[in-house]
Amino acid sequence: MSIEKGSDLLGFSPSTFKNMKKELIKYGLLVEDREGLTKTNRLYILQYEYTEEDIIRINKEVDDMLEEAEKVAQTVDAQLKGKSYPSREVKVTHHDGQNLTTSNNN
């Protein structure tokens, strides 16, 4: 399935479709088989039924990622707290032109 066909079929943008494919491959739910240089890749769905353990595992991984992102955001916020960043000053300098010799062409 091409990216264009898949994104049209599901109603997503091509970049969203590519990101969804990566996530499904990451969790072992999709296999992409390369067919050839000018051919589109084949997509194989590996698991379409979910157990409660699968949902708990995926939710835990997402929760862990969110907690880690929150910790990073808090440390960045603490580092930036109280610091002021003045606007960038631009120094304009005048470059003296070179004195070039000219020929006397009347």
What does this structure look like?
The mean pLDDT is 80. 1% of the residues are buried. The protein has a two-stranded antiparallel ribbon with strand order 1-2. The protein has 106 residues and is mainly alpha-helical. The protein has helices at residues 3-10, 14-26, 52-80, and strands spanning 30-33, 42-45. β1 and β2 form a beta hairpin.
Multimerization state: single chain
Strand proportion: 5-15%
> How many alpha or pi helices?
3
Order of helices and strands: HHEEH
Major sheet: arrangement of strands: 1-2
Structural class: mainly alpha
The radius of gyration computed from the alpha-carbon positions, rounded to a whole number of angstroms, is 29 Å
Give me the count of strands: 2
Main sheet summary: 2 strands, antiparallel
Helix content: 40-55%
Distance between the amino and carboxyl termini: 74 Å
Q: Which descriptor suits the 3D outline?
A: flat
Low-confidence regions: none
Mean pLDDT: 80
Topology:
Blueprint: H1 3-10, H2 14-26, E1 30-33, E2 42-45, H3 52-80
Antiparallel strand pairs: 1-2
Helix pairs in contact: 1-2
Descriptive keywords:
single chain; 106 residues; mainly alpha; two-stranded antiparallel ribbon; 2 strands
